[in-house]
Design brief:
Tetracycline Repressor, domain 2; globular; mainly alpha; 159 residues
Length: 159
């Protein structure tokens, strides 16, 4: 029986992939260029995660875990406090990158690409990240929330 993937190495790699995808998005991602960008071998990614689909599913689960730990998800916050904390998060580059990735994953799910089996995500290739930014900001403002949801639905319909 061969060696099993190392859980500690898996967690390290998952964090590296997560950081990369926050900056670059998931549209058109493939294992070889991803591995090169992370200065690791394609074999290492395949050994630790199995396939691109399994890697993207792991990233999706990681995004959900990170989301759950965000300060705006704390119990007992009023709607205004929650929106304020989301705006604070969006005011940072890392926060904006995180929410872009969340929207891309949501669009992928809307396309029928399940989080647990996220394949090529080819429908995201035409998604303009500036549009995603507008959706994110719009969702945080009660005055534009409905319009942002409509834009997100149209984006899913076009993809």
């Amino acid at each position: 029986m061969g060696r099993r993937p190392d859980p500690k190495r898996n967690a390290e790699l998952l964090e590296m992939v997560f950081d990369y995808l926050k900056r670059h998005g998931i549209a058109g991602v493939s294992m070889r260029p991803l591995a090169e960008a992370l200065d690791i071998s394609t074999y290492t990614l395949t050994y630790q995660f199995g396939s691109k689909e399994e890697l993207l599913a792991a990233v999706s689960r990681h995004v959900s875990a990170v989301e759950a730990a965000k300060p705006y998800n704390a119990d007992g916050l009023s709607r205004a406090e929650r929106i304020g904390k989301i705006r604070d998060d969006l005011a940072t580059d890392d926060g904006l990158d995180f929410h872009r990735l969340r929207v891309e994953i949501a669009v992928a799910r809307g396309l029928g690409i399940a989080a647990e089996a996220a394949p090529a995500m080819h429908g995201l290739d035409n998604v303009d990240r500036a549009v995603v930014d507008g959706i994110i900001v719009g969702l945080c403002d009660p005055a534009t929330h409905h319009d942002a949801l409509t834009t997100l639905e149209e984006l899913v319909a076009r993809a």
